[in-house]
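for ur thesis appendix - SPX domain-containing protein. copy paste whatever u need, i formatted it the way the template wanted (i think)
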Amino acid sequence: MPPQQSRAKSRPSSCKSNLSSDHDFPNVSVEVSYEALSVNEQALINEIAKAEHQLLNGQVDLAQATEQARTNVSSSATAAFLALFAKELTRVSVCIQSEERNQEYAVKALLTSMDIVTSNARGRLSRDSVRGFQQKAKLQAEGYIQLQRFAAECSDILTRVATYADSQLHTCCVDTLSVSANKRSLSSAFVVVLSDVYNAIREADNQGPGGDSKWVAPSSFERVTSKYWVSEDKLTELLLGAASEAPLLVYGCSGRLTSKADCQRIEGDKLWDTLATTISSVYFDSPDMKLYRDRIARLEGAQLLRARWYGKKPTGSKPVFLELKTHHEKWVNTKSVKERVNIREADMKHFLAHRKWTIADAQSIVLAANKDMGEEELCKAANLLLTMHKLVVRLDLRPCVRSAYSRAAFQSPKDNSLRLTIDRNITLIDETRTSSGSWCLPDDAVIGSDMARTVPYAVYEIKLAGSEMPASMQALLDSGVILDAAKFSKFLTGAAAFQGGKINVLPYWAEYDTFIPLFFGKPTAANDVATPVSMATSRNFPIATTQSTSSEQSLSKTNVTGTSPFGNCASSARSRESVTKIEQRIAPKKPARVEPKSYFANERTFIQWISAALLQVTVAVILLEFESQHPEYPLVSIGLLLCGCAAVIIAYALYAYHRRVRLLMSGEPYGYIDHTGPTFLGCSIFIGLLALLIIFMNQRDPENGGFWQENESRVLPPSIASPQIRPIPRQCILHQTNGISFLDKQPSDIAVDDGRGMFIVPTMSSIHGYDVSEAVTDEVTGENTKVLVDIPGSNFESLALVGDFIFALSSKEDSLTSELVALSWVSDSQLQEQQRWTLDTPRAQGIAYVPGVDGGKGKFYISGDKGADVATSERGFIDIYEHVEVGEPDLVSHSLNTKLLTRGLIDSKIATLQFFEDHLYVLHDHAHLVRVWNIETGVTTAEWTLPQGEQWDGMMLVRQEVEEASPSDRRLRGSVRGLSDVPDNTASTSLMLHLSAESPPEVWSFGVSEGNLPGSIVLPECAAATV
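the 3d part is after this line
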């Protein structure tokens, strides 16, 4: 099947990079769009199909022809496709190179523009100018990343087409494409110039130290290092991110890396060809791999010794840096540290000789390489060198493995708090088979191809000295540009790859597919003898080419004269299919170390099993307690069964605990999954809970046969109260609302008009009136309900009685405003709208009127709901509006402190408000409570819970006079204020609490008592009294 086609995302139709200078704000615009330049995949696929058709026809006609004739037919059939493929490859490559040059010139122009602006401003740029340059630099980086992604996408398309062509036409397009890719890759000069731009911005903004001084490596390091892998296709994006955090650091250089002359020419791959540091390290270990075993197990005090140099291998008096790394566990009050001292290369043989040294011997060797070193530094360095030499003698350390790579470092030369390094082309070389007279392999040594391996990724290290990871680096990790490589080690990798027969523990990354060739790769049977390779090649790091077996080298193609750059490669492609797969040598392997937390996790699992067993026992005891009440059920049998199950669970948990301990101690990677135990536990608990459910269902409705007998369908009338509220005359009164269908009722608030003797209840678009006589008598009567007013389109939520007017609050569900409607009495049974105001309070719910001082104008307190888009704890709020007379203009408002108002509530929605006896009562319907506030001081004076079982939306407290109240009357109607000081035959008062609920539509009255605190209420027992 032909490959699936892909299109580039959001690519306009041209390539363009322009620069125009403005001394205040350099206008560097980067418009990158590549749609017209992308690979014409469909045309290539069509040519493959056409060539395949010709090949098939040619094979049928020339079935008896010679091999040479068949070959000519094949070349003729594929010539058109090969020509088109070569054309597409050339066109895309030229475009990418052209755009790359444009972008490099653009960033250099930005650097030149910065120089001009800085010079004119005498080094003092404004904050706006600095931010402008920062934005331009960011745009340049994004444009270059987009170019890189376009190049990668084109490469993917061409590779997909080439693979398909090779499989269908037996060409060698994949190999040709690989050669072309190796010849040309994106230049790194852009990164160098952008690093200079960012460094100039940092200096101008005084946000970080500049890069003018030379960097000198410290002799001791105490930094936290994080390691990551990065693939080649993500390397440019990583380099640009690192350049934005710290300047590019070149050992031995200072100041800007891009001169004015450099800004006038294209520099090529400047970073890796010129500025990157070539680093070689030789790691030492004993014949029994003692250092490897300690390091991979991360034992306390594990050490690593290596010799390092920069550039070509030093000789004679040139320095070699000896470094000793010491690992310390977190529980040790010492940080892991890396110490280094440099000696002459000529003294390395003496250092590795198994001869005891004195401190004088160490001092003489250090002094030979550091003639200007002070006495204190000399003493410290000599002690360190002596420690290293003692380690060599004690463990019989010898060269084990060499690593060689190119390093790009980003760090301020004045500050070691942040250091970013990228190691590329990492080559590992076996140093154990050296036979030369040198202490390690020289650069011109000839080695076997099996003595060199290449790490499949570049390694990125972030070294911090107490600071946090830069935000841009965290973004790269989150986006997948870099991959976590915790504890990755070049030494462990190389030692495990070359000394697999001496070790039985491999690093964890040996299991990753990309590392399998490195660890388990092996020459084929045709090449048991290693092919000689020059170490001079290794120093430049294309060691990947030296890893080919002789069978693979035999596939190298010779140039064939012809019109197609692919030539006649069919035979080479067919021969590739016959190559025997390389057998992998799998070394014995165990986890490097079992962390203590693994044992702790096993113990916690055991404790959780015991907790589950105790739950079983608890359920069993409950069932046994019910046995006397329900002898008809086999509760004793079920309870004893559950106790037996609990015993089995405990025994099984103990067995599983010890089995996992053995697995952890033996290092087995399998056997930890348990299917039997959880299944048995779940079934046993299900049986117990099912038995409890049956019992509780029977207790809930024993008269109708409980759970086992099917009940007849019964519909409860809406007037029946919640099980927690019992209608009792004078204490808990449920008002009948005959005259209007329950479907037309949705009481959202309640108010009392004493003069007319009725409850006024808003419900949807109308306002109803109830007779209040039932609230003050012992009889439950069925009074009629009156419709006082009906205003279509309204949604009345709350009422406030002010003088002769009733102010009704109308809410709009999906609107950010509400309405306040003024109503007046036309008759004792009819209201009429007088005026309407629009309020800025969204989804208004409750209203309370607070009178002014000395009879002055008061204020409306109106609660609103911010809706489901905010957290439930922040929904409720209260706005305050100045009271106006009917006919006056709009209201003026301000708000209360919402955080104080809703503090401590999970759901702060406010259903209604009431100002009563100098306190503001706020009903939070979802929280099922009322808070009482002193609005003068802003202090909560009381908080009490509403009767359970209903969703209360309206509330009104009323104090009533009780004439010649007997003690029994007082108990029924509520406590009397000042009872102890007032004679029994005098007029007293009692409190009545009126509540309305929307669903089911009910109106209740409760005779309540006053608590000890101002505003506190005690509900009667019939209302499930709470304080």
